[in-house]
Amino acid sequence: MPTLIEEIPEPESGGEKVSIPTQENNIKIENVSKITEIVEEKKQEKTVKNDTSRFGPKMTKEYLRKHCKEQKLYLTPYLNDVLYLHFKGFSTIENLDEYTGLKCLWLESNGIGRIENLNNQKELKCLYLQQNLIRKIENLEPLELLDTINLSNNYITKIENLSCCKKLTSLCVSHNKIESYKDLEHLIECESISCLDLSNNSIEDAQVIEVFENMKNLHVLNLMGNPVIKMIKDYRKTLTVRIKGLTYLDDRPVFPRDRACAEAWAVGGKDAEREERKKWDNAEHKRIMDSVNDLLARRDKFIAERNQLRQNQEETNQDNDVDLENLENIIAPKKDEISIENSKDDSEEIPELEQVDEQELIEVKINNQQEEKLSIFSQKSDSETSLIPNELLISKINANEEKVSNELPKKVLIEEIAPNEDHKVESESNLTDAQAD
User: Fold this and answer.
1) What whole-number distance in Å separates Cα of residue 151 and Cα of residue 159?
2) What angle separates helix 358-397 from helix 399-436, to the nearest 10 degrees?
3) Could you tell me the pTM of the whole model?
4) Which of 92, 113, 138, 246 could form a disulfide with 133 if both were Cys (CB 3.0 to 4.6 A apart)?
């Protein structure tokens, strides 16, 4: 083998010799060796980064099963439609293949650096990945039913790979690194997006209005915290005019009156805007006055109906009235006749003293005395019975007093009945003596 110093003859050169300097070849060899070393170092750095990127807990099947048990979810993976995996410190999305029934996935505030391993979540509708370390939007093709995605507080520099989600309506990319028109150009292909949040980015290109103007279903837009707001003259009016379906801009809604005034301003300037505003003010004033007049008309109608009812009632009361004087003249003679008849009956019933026998007088006296005593006895019994409830209340405190209270009425009956029996005996003896006489 020839060395680098030897002269190597060319086969058809006619005896000419070519000499190769040794220093240059040595420099080239050294450069190649350095390049290979640098490549190997980079590979090692990548491997180290991949190893260090898996910090924190891993999303293992056992961990997910334990988490479902703690959150009182289903232990059978495919039965769960929600998973709360936020604030856990995960660095990668993995081991979610069995959770095919998920409709909402919370991965907020972790250390996730890439969107991946969501191929089996075909029913997923809401994906929350805010406050992570994501730098690129990718691997969303399987999520055909995705409706809402939140990627705020990440490191995204460009919006891409979202046109595959045909049903996506809400996109939040606030607090990221988006800057220019090219970074937002992909939104024109996302026809279904109606709510877009781009607040607190670094957008400086006023050409981005063309992107929003070509979004057919855009209704809500938030650009607060971007330098482009100061670069667009009459920012709010221009956006309301150019985005036809806009109903909410930044922190307040776009009312029909605002849209009409903005369109008039775009056609005829401030004068046209002033006239349009007067028209709306007059229409609003007329609407208020119409409502007030309608209310007053209803009130007057109600008052008229009420007065008519009162008049009808008064007329009916007048027809039903009767003269009190005639009633007194009719009733008074009847009262006099009744009093005369009663006096006659009383006079007929009262017998003369000569016709009354002595025996009858004695019997009447005895009966009167008995009735008086019986009435006295009944009064006493009533007074005693009135005291019984108090005695019953006392009996709850002392059981011995209850017996005494139950015996009291018996003694009173004995004491009251005894004199009555003696009186009956005396009255019977008096009757026998009177008959004997």
Assistant:
1) 11
2) 170
3) 0.59
4) 113
Reply yes or no on whether the pLDDT at 112 is more than 60.
Answer: yes
* Residue position matching structure tokens 């776009």: 254
The answer to whether residues 358 and 434 touch, using CB atoms and an 8 Å cutoff, is yes
Query: Is 157:182 a contact under the CB 8 Å cutoff?
Result: no
Pairing of strands 148-150, 195-197: unpaired
- Residues with Cβ within 8 Å of 116's Cβ and at least 6 positions away in sequence, in order, are 92, 93, 138, 139
Gap between the Cα atoms of 117 and 140, Å rounded? 10
State the first-to-last Cα distance of the chain, in angstroms, to the nearest integer. 191
Amino acid at 355: Q
Return the pLDDT at 56.
Answer: 76
Cβ-based burial of 263 (10 A; exposed 0-12, middle 13-18, buried ≥19): middle
Cβ–Cβ under 8 Å, residues 82 and 61: no
> Where in 220-308 does DSSP place strands (E)?
220-222, 248-249, 252-253
Fill in the amino acid letter for 399: A
Of the candidate ranges 20-34, 222-236, 399-413, the one whose mean pLDDT is the lowest: 399-413
